[in-house]
Amino acid sequence: MDTKKYEVFEKIVEYSSLTRAAEELGLTQSGVSHVLAALEEEFGFPLLRRSRVGARLTPEGEALMPRVREVLRSQERLEQAAAELRGLAAGTVRVATFTSVAVHWLPGMLQEFQALYPRVDFRLFNGDYHDVDRWLSDGSADVGFVALPTELRCPCTPLKEDRLLAVLPKNHPLAALEVCPAAAVAREPFISLLETSDDDARRALEAAGVTPNVRFTTKDDYAIIAMVEQGLGVSIMPELLLTGREDGVALRPLEPAASRTLALAVPAGDAAGPATRRFAEFVREWVEKNA
User: Fold this and answer.
1) What is the C-alpha separation between 139 and 167, in angstroms, rounded?
2) Are 28 and 22 in contact (CB under 8 A)?
3) What's the pLDDT at 249?
4) Which of 50, 99, 179, 262 stands 20 to 30 A from 125 (CA)?
């Protein structure tokens, strides 16, 4: 099956731009426009609306996009299965993840996995919890790192329990304590992630029966650390994310203790391609050995 036209369509949607899609695929913009026009003629309706701010799916295009991704993933699984029968581990694995895993786990994982399977390529999608759930749900990613509990309805394998810590300015009075009461943290000016990404801190504070005094909100994990360092407030963050970032802030365990469970989600389950299945198995082994 010739799936090139569907790949072009997916790239346009991913980048919201015909020009960016053309650059990524090594095609001319006119060539990408021709493929899109041919697809729209084949289906009998417009797939995208183009404007100065980019290309956006029409309602009809939105309805077709999951089916297009199914075709592309099926083609990849077919090619991976054929490669496996030839004794080769090959293919592309799309990995969705958030900052702490992307920074502290993935580089080491990918280095070791590539040494074993150099013919497997990777595409990495980095965002917050909400982004990861969306990429896994809509088929953009084959496998993803998630924090449990999750609303995703797919197999999720727990990997590691990751403590949540209070993040304080070095000279803050709470930094003098060995264990920091969550209620005391909630009373301070609190720096929070966006509502779609603050599951960890919210669960820790809800468990303590308190509501934070949120003064600042951001999507950037490391911006929070920098703001705490400057004395703008306090926060609650996962221990893995804070690795190597302890110099400018004080980190204290919470009372009551709180944590998140890092897990690996594979939406396709047993139907995932050989390269995806091998990577998922490797991730579990790598975390057990290294984390």
Assistant:
1) 35
2) yes
3) 95
4) 50
The model's pTM is 0.73
Neighbours of 118 (CB within 10 A): 10
Please choose, from the candidates 154, 233, 165, 150, the residue with its C-alpha nearest in 3D space to the C-alpha of residue 204.
Answer: 165
CB–CB of 153/227 below 8 Å? Answer: no
| Sign of torsion over alpha carbons 99, 144, 123, 117 | positive
Residues facing 91 on adjacent strands: 120
| 64 token code pair | 């077709």
What token pair was written down for 287? Answer: 């975390």
The answer to whether the CB of 252 falls within 8 A of the CB of 180 is yes
pLDDT in tens, 86-138: 665 778 899 999 999 999 999 999 999 999 989 899 999 999 999 999 999 98
* Cα atoms in the 13 Å half-sphere on the side-chain side of 196: 11
Q: What tokens appear for 140 in the block?
A: 């953009």
HEC letters along 137-163: HCCCCCEEEEEECCCCCCCEEEEEEEE
Dihedral pair phi/psi, residue 258, rounded to 5°: -140, 155
Go through the domains of the chain in sequence order and give each one's CATH number: 1-80 (1.10.10.10), 162-258 (3.40.190.290)
44 CB neighbour count, 10 Å cutoff: 7
What is the distance between the alpha carbons of residues 200 and 187, in angstroms, rounded to a whole number? 18
**For residue 175, which amino acid is it?**
A
234-243 average pLDDT score: 95
